[in-house]
Amino acid sequence: MNHPRTLGELRKSTFSEQRLRTRRVKDELRENLIARLRSGETIFSGIVGYDDTVVPQLVNALLSRHNFILLGLRGQAKSRILRALTGLLDPELPFIAGCEIHDNPYDPICKHCRELIAAQGDATPIGYLTPDDRYVEKLATPDVTIADLIGDVDPIKAARGGHALSSELTVHYGLLPRANRGIFAVNELPDLAGKIQVGLFNIMQEGDVQIKGYPLRLPLDVALVFTANPEDYTARGKIVTPLKDRIGSEIRTHYPSTLEEGISITQQEAWAQRDGLELHVPKYVHEVVERIAFLAREDKKIDKRSGVSQRLPISVLENVVSNAERRALRNGEKTIVPRIGDVYAALPSITGKLELEYEGEMRGADTVARELIRTAVAKTYDVYFKGLDMQQIVQWFELGGEIRLADTAGAQQVLDGIQNIQGLTEKLAPLGIKSKDKTEVVVSAAEFVLEGLHAHRRIGRSEERVFAADKTAKRVEKPFEPEDQPFRNRRPYN
């Protein structure tokens, strides 16, 4: 499609002058949202688990033309939601070509563009903005300045153009003016210094700001959106009252409420497909990985104020697949099938994402993470095997049977070993395993059963992954002999 390239051509095109003059960014977002609601299209693709909670509130805020803030712990898709707003912008928007703040051809606000139109008239060049061009994001940090957000005097511009330093033509615009006619997002708003927040509020509400003591009028057309952690929002950081008062909607995000939602998010975000080898991740592995995050969010040894990011199961799944990939490559296997042993091998992707309370610090991150995995395995095992008689397998170990399932051992090698365990392969039906399935799939399922029995303390397992009878469960404490307990059972003195 050939677009008008000059102001004169634009006046004769289908781009309505009246519409471009009067339609603000928030009107644009509202109109395109209404169109999606009427057509039944998905409003925000890639956002899972918020259909009945966050999305309705977000829709209401956009329909109300509000600036809004998303409050939530880390890893709750706040930034993803903000970036998804670009899908509600028009595919193309004309602006005066070369303008730093994307001026409206029919209503320019910067002095340079007004002088350009006065000089060139209908020959003024026109460019076009895509939705991505109209989204500007800034992570708030304490060292952010007014110059970063609003702008500053540029002495080089003044020298080259022969302008006075007080001239508007010497201004180097900051991020907010460069987001004109678009969306400006600030992540972690409370970390922004109070005086910077005041400047943000002033240009947002009044359209004016002072740069180096000189007043500058910038009636920007911007939709302002923010994110914040609730803990920072109420404690460490502050949002100045005038700015907080002008944030129209405060929307709370949350972690996945069901295991299925969490699995969907992890599958969507994790880099699991690897080149060259077929990948099959069993459902129970997905469930174990996701349950680790769910359990961690409820564990008293982990700081709930910090939260447990959804990035944890994403990173764990990637590490699990990588460990299985390494084993497949070493053993010349053509199919990657993760095992529960691979979850334990993924400890480095868990420990760094847990903020521990005092009790957790005393026990150590590795110990806490191992306990989470063991509990996740036990709960997942119960989904498939609760009430099923596993005594034949347990008895095999109690009679002296042992087997080592190293996470580097090839599938055929492990299969040769587990076939000696009476009744094990016959118990895999609840997992949907059939005799004709690939060796890697059968081995993974069999190891899951053994790990589940170990998690329930029915069999033992060493750190070297040797499964055997659980001797700790059978141990009977030796009775104290009189010489062993010199301070017990003595006759009281007369």
Side by side, the strands of the main sheet go 4-7-10-1-11
* H/I helix tally: 23
Cα end-to-end separation: 110 Å
Query: Major sheet: size, sense and barrel closure?
Result: 5 strands, parallel
Strand content: 5-15%
Output the CATH homologous superfamily of the largest domain: P-loop containing nucleotide triphosphate hydrolases
Mean pLDDT equals: 88
Could you please say which CATH topology of the largest domain applies here? Answer: Rossmann fold
What is the total number of structural domains? 2
Secondary structure layout plus pairing:
Layout: H1 7-12, H2 17-22, H3 25-39, H4 54-63, E1 68-71, H5 78-84, E2 93-96, H6 111-120, E3 126-129, E4 135-139, H7 146-149, E5 151-153, H8 155-161, E6 171-173, H9 175-178, E7 182-187, H10 194-205, E8 208-211, E9 214-217, E10 222-228, H11 230-236, H12 241-245, E11 249-252, H13 259-269, E12 278-279, H14 283-298, H15 311-331, E13 335-336, H16 340-345, H17 348-351, H18 358-363, H19 365-385, H20 391-398, E14 403-404, H21 411-418, H22 439-455, E15 460-461, E16 466-468, H23 471-474
Parallel strand pairs: 1-10, 1-11, 4-7, 7-10, 12-13
Antiparallel strand pairs: 2-3, 5-6, 8-9, 14-16, 15-16
Helix pairs in contact: 13-14, 13-15, 14-15, 14-19, 19-22, 21-22
